[in-house]
């Protein structure tokens, strides 16, 4: 009996020591990351089955030996039973014989169970291989189908553009509150877009053009008599582009964007519903500019505000301010990459008094939620300030970016103080198709001195709409609600304004809605987008100003975005090194936050300490109550340009 126990132990050890059973359990767990059966995996599976077969042969041999020796044992016991032995000894021999029979039966059962296990393993391995092969073929088929659909969609759009019945050069006119402009092939309509239903009531007014007359100002519904609608009017399109070469030669190109492939869905699938600023992203999704630099880019068409300084009419000035607010979106039409999230305390200066006549300073004043304060001073007689908090959500198919906060603009000579907010930006086709961006929503610009208002409407893009793509419309009204100007255009190309000489209600439509009909003078171009530099498609679609923002400059603060190492590495095309450096900077920022939390926890409770740790005291801005909006915002407190002149940066934190 001792021999039987040793044989069982040896058999089990021999079977388990091969590692085959553990290996097969591991294969059965379903934790295959690749999802496809590679040749190496198939070879390993065949080796495992082969080892199992060999072990089964060993067990079969052992079974034969057990059966042979069991028969011999029973024969010996039968012979002993035939001898004359005491009755008590005969009963013991009978018990030994029964145990030997049970041992043989148990051994046979074990052999049969092992044989069934091997057959089951072979059957399921073939099923798994077929299933994995099927999934691999389906994935390849799906990728080919999506690519074919995208090509067919693109060819249909091109065929639609070149259709004979479509006007090639529609004349510029105002109709249904829109400015009809031509769009060539450079508009690059989207290959795979998410379309909205056509908006039947996209505008609340209709415009009719009339020829200018000498007594047009006396017509019913005319604007203020101080406005002269002549060729030398300040709203005319002359001098749209600043004259004269810049005094300092700026760079006109950056290294081309490398062609790195990246599986977007593998990163974004775990980000649905989360705040975008809290998601660690590789630089592959970025452009080599920070959010502070993108905010400074709004000043590209600063000459609109320089012209607005000379307006004698607040209505005219409002038109130019509205055009300036729309122009800030013109660079975003192709810019679907994400700017770098600034580090807490990071700054960016734009000292361009010589050529642009202004000085601009941005500082990241909060990290969660991300918030940046901005102040601009122009020697031409205006100043602009804002605190923008970016709220963004990833919704699976699209990404919504909601800038929160007010933008203030003040003209020193007239005292006119304008306030407005930014529209919502939406990035479509995050997972499948060509990425494209749209601006939507209503923007109200208010002159808090005169109570004049401008209502701007950014219409969502619709493939089936008759309206021009990326359309913007607006009406400028005085404090009494009387309309004086109609604005129309597109946020990616140009804006025009037309003076209203008469207004009247239209006939009710079938649904009972009634629009206002504005009789206007011919429209005048206020703003037109600058052409992009050559090779812009390989330089992140940067404008001429954007190309200069990250150019190295001497004398800037040690917290300036130009000195950020991961951003600089990305600009040079070293993306792997940039990702490593980005992780280092983010970890350094987390360590600094933990230190602030530990310092605050010594004097107060855990919950209060966490709140205190989130509070950062800006270096160049301070919180003040805005008397106009009633909101608390960061306002420039001074001292930066004086510190730059002295090159005294001892107060700046070490964030890089």
UniProtKB/TrEMBL annotation:
<keyword id="KW-0813">Transport</keyword>
<dbReference type="GO" id="GO:0006869">
    <property type="term" value="P:lipid transport"/>
</dbReference>
<dbReference type="GO" id="GO:0015485">
    <property type="term" value="F:cholesterol binding"/>
</dbReference>
<dbReference type="Pfam" id="PF01237">
    <property type="entry name" value="Oxysterol_BP"/>
</dbReference>
<dbReference type="InterPro" id="IPR037239">
    <property type="entry name" value="OSBP_sf"/>
</dbReference>
<dbReference type="InterPro" id="IPR018494">
    <property type="entry name" value="Oxysterol-bd_CS"/>
</dbReference>
<dbReference type="GO" id="GO:0097038">
    <property type="term" value="C:perinuclear endoplasmic reticulum"/>
</dbReference>
<dbReference type="GO" id="GO:0005829">
    <property type="term" value="C:cytosol"/>
</dbReference>
<keyword id="KW-0597">Phosphoprotein</keyword>
<feature type="compositionally biased region" description="Polar residues">
    <location>
        <begin position="170"/>
        <end position="181"/>
    </location>
</feature>
<feature type="coiled-coil region">
    <location>
        <begin position="132"/>
        <end position="159"/>
    </location>
</feature>
<dbReference type="InterPro" id="IPR000648">
    <property type="entry name" value="Oxysterol-bd"/>
</dbReference>
<protein>
    <recommendedName>
        <fullName>Oxysterol-binding protein</fullName>
    </recommendedName>
</protein>
<feature type="region of interest" description="Disordered">
    <location>
        <begin position="161"/>
        <end position="191"/>
    </location>
</feature>
<keyword id="KW-0472">Membrane</keyword>
<dbReference type="GO" id="GO:0005886">
    <property type="term" value="C:plasma membrane"/>
</dbReference>
<keyword id="KW-0446">Lipid-binding</keyword>
<keyword id="KW-0175">Coiled coil</keyword>
<keyword id="KW-0445">Lipid transport</keyword>
<comment type="similarity">
    <text>Belongs to the OSBP family.</text>
</comment>
